[in-house]
Amino acid sequence: MFLKQINLINYKNYSYLCVDFKNKCNIIYGDNAQGKTNLIEAVYYLSTLSQFRNINNDETIKHGEKSCSIVVKTEFKR
Predict the structure, then answer these.
(1) Can you list the domains of the chain with their CATH numbers?
(2) Cα 44 to Cα 61: distance, rounded to the nearest angstrom
């Protein structure tokens, strides 16, 4: 299974984020405190259904919001 796209809504520091992934190599880069690790943690959460760090699920919701969501598009190849 390949991750094609991820959408984060009210997840940690993101109000909304949509990232399309390529088939080969994907590089995530940016300044400090911009949310690179939060993106990776969202992928980890969907892969394992557990938090990367030992935190409360409420800490994944953006401050001031009531809920968050992570939506992905995947592709299966044989």
Answers:
(1) 2-75 (3.40.50.300)
(2) 16
